[in-house]
Amino acid sequence: MSFSKNIMTINDKINVLYETVKTLNYLPTSQKRVFFNDGTKMHTFWHICKLRNRFDKNPYKKLLEIDVLKNDYESYLLNYHHNY
Description:
Largest sheet: none
Number of helices: 3
Distance between the termini: 39 Å
Strand content: under 5%
Radius of gyration: 13 Å
Number of domains: 1
Mean pLDDT: 89
Number of strands: 0
């Protein structure tokens, strides 16, 4: 698989993830591999956003406007707090 050498900004990745999930109506997972133009996995980017709990500030909070992402994040929080 060949990707461009373009480096994507955080804003670029948030906008692409937002539009991709909105269009597909599902969350990219490790099994449903969806990549950014720079070759990074959308699933990995989303997972890091959840781990670092970045959704209380812009531009990250835009992602929680999509129910698929919001529900996944809320489920993550419930499981995280339940396990710790």
